[in-house]
Fold this protein.
Amino acid sequence: MEEILVTENLSKSFTIHSLNKHIGALQDINFTVNQGEFVGITGKSGSGKTTVFKCIYRTYAPEYGEIWYNSKEFGRVNLAKLSERMMIYLRKKEIGYVAQFLNVMPRITARDLVKQAVLEIGQTEEQAKKEAVKMLDHFELDQELWDSYPNTFSGGEKLRLNLARAMVKHPRLLLLDEPTASLDVQSKLKVKALIEQLMREGTTMLGIFHDLEFMENLCTREYVMQEGRLMAKNKEKIIRLSSKSKSSNSKN
């Protein structure tokens, strides 16, 4: 299978100057994701899961290590050292990110947010309008809210809008950070159906979850984060991923 994402010795730390404290967030993270896989990551809050995603999406600059991404446009590139201009292009065209919280301009409607996402990948105005309606309808966002500003939405409504905006692009790589955190059972089923559709279309996904039931029969592989380290979960055993074990896995 074709590799789409490879992290090598990825490390990240933060300094809290007011407390004169240095915190190691990620330590020697190594894993490979193949085209079309859905890799799930679990772990306690504060274990470093979201930091991994933010390094891949480059809203955090990695301290050490490499993040190799197989781009459709640029070929194999190192996201850890890619120019900001190229990174912005990849966010628009190839890499999607669904965060737990929606952060958008205050004076743009829900409909326009999703429509704008479709326009970014080169679709026509008419196609963008149709796709926006289709996606907002799929996530059962009340039609009365479509032309409202998202800052008035509930937490669950904001998350559904965030999912709609990212998934409507059918990205090459999609990062899902707690995509079902504040959703009811029916909304979770809608998310699951769309994830399965994207998988059939070839989208590669990484997902952070606390909802283990949601992950069941969905992820092709699962990892566990523990205190900034990534562990492979295999037959109920947790194995630390060192550089050596990663190399061994890649050969199998």
